[in-house]
């Protein structure tokens, strides 16, 4: 039930793009040709998943690099992950410079919706509470994801997307939990305590993944982060 709206939206978008691709009516004014082929979105999807898989397999290397510059593993992993996540925010600009702005964004959204739906369905089997949190956070923006001609609307969507970034979402959840336990702390100390707890939570999830084969970190880096990046790519897509 929690993935019903996402899957229905994906099917509806697929139907609309299929109908648009088959239209061949003569018009007085020629329109820009839009590529509805699967190869149009293939480079974007592959590049996003390869980069996220690289992040998922890099904690050990990041920890070793941090040790050489005098950082403890907890700091190096968090800072390295945050730096990586910030650096890949420029992907939409790179793809627009490689000519992908002429391709159809609808197929990218269809793939992202299907992947998000499968992720939520599988997560609900193991951890329904976590799946519900992701559903509440991601479904509204997933359904409204589309290129915006107005710069203000595009910036507004980008801010909302940044708030549901997996790393930001982790910090917000930890902050709420910290506030529930230490509500008497001033704001600056509460935020600092939340920052420290976020670093520990990220480190513990990686350790659990490596030692006990816990799936949370792997799913976050290999599934949830790629979906987020696809929606980021769609919302910052050049208006056609």
TrEMBL record:
Keyword match Signal: yes
Transmembrane keyword on record: yes
Pfam assignment, any one: Gaa1
Spans traversing the lipid bilayer: 36-56, 77-96, 116-138, 159-182, 212-232
Name by which UniProt lists this protein: Glycosylphosphatidylinositol anchor attachment 1 protein
GO cellular component, one term: GPI-anchor transamidase complex
Signal peptide span: 1-21
Organism for this UniProt entry: Halocaridina rubra (Hawaiian red shrimp)
GO biological process per UniProt: attachment of GPI anchor to protein
Domain of life the protein comes from: Eukaryota
Keywords: Membrane, Signal, Transmembrane, Transmembrane helix
Lineage, opening ranks: Eukaryota, Metazoa, Ecdysozoa, Arthropoda, Crustacea
